[in-house]
Amino acid sequence: MKRFRKLLLASLALLFLASLAHGQTIQKDYLSNLEADKIRDAETPNERIKLFLTFADDRLKKFQYELDHPSQTRHSEILNYLMNSYIGCVDDASDLIQEGIEKQQNIRAGIDLMSNKAKEFLEILKKISADAKEIEIYKFNLDDAIEGTQDAISDAEKAKKNVAPAPTRRKN
C-alpha cells in the first residue's frame, strides 16, 4: 500500500512539473490568437498582406527592444523566436501575393506595400547585422531573414509586372 502511494505521489509530481514546463514554453505558432483572428477576418488579400507586414514590423521592433533590454531568462530563445516569427510573417505575405496573382485578384496595393516595407525591413536587418550585438545567438535566423526579405522584394518586383491590369472604364 505504501508503494502504491509513493508511486501515485511521484506520478502526480511528474504531471505537475510537466504542466509547469509546458506553460512556460514559447508558443510555436508565430501568430497570437488575436492576430490569427484578424487575418481570418480580413476580407481581401490586400488587407491580409497589410496585416502580415504589420505583424512582421512588430516582430522586428520587439527584436530590437530585446537586444537593447535583454530578458533575464530565455534571452536567446526570445531573440530566435522573434526572428523566426518575422520570417514567417514576411513569407506568408509573399505567399498571399503569389496566390493573388494566380487567382488574378487585384492586389496592387499589397504588392506596393510589400515592396516598400520589405526594403525598410532589409535596411533594419542589415543594420542589426552590422551592429553584430550578440550575433552568435541568432546569426542563422538573421541570415535567413535577410535572404527571405530579399526574396520578398524580388518577388514583389516580379509581381508588379505579372499582376492583372486594372479594369478600364469605357467612355461613351
Number of strands: 0
The structural class is mainly alpha
What is the average of the pLDDT values? 83
* SSE order: HHHHHH
Strand percentage lies at: under 5%
Oligomer: single chain
Overview of the structural elements:
The chain is mainly alpha-helical and 172 residues long. It has one domain (29-162). It is 79% helix and 0% strand. The protein has helices spanning 2-24, 33-41, 45-68, 75-102, 108-131, 135-162. Helix 4 packs antiparallel against helix 5 and helix 5 (108-131) runs antiparallel to helix 6. The N and C termini lie far apart (95 Å).
Annotation keywords:
172 residues; mainly alpha; 6 helices; 79% helix; 0% strand; globular
Write the layout of secondary structure elements.
Layout: H1 2-24, H2 33-41, H3 45-68, H4 75-102, H5 108-131, H6 135-162
Helix pairs in contact: 2-3, 3-4, 3-5, 4-5, 4-6, 5-6
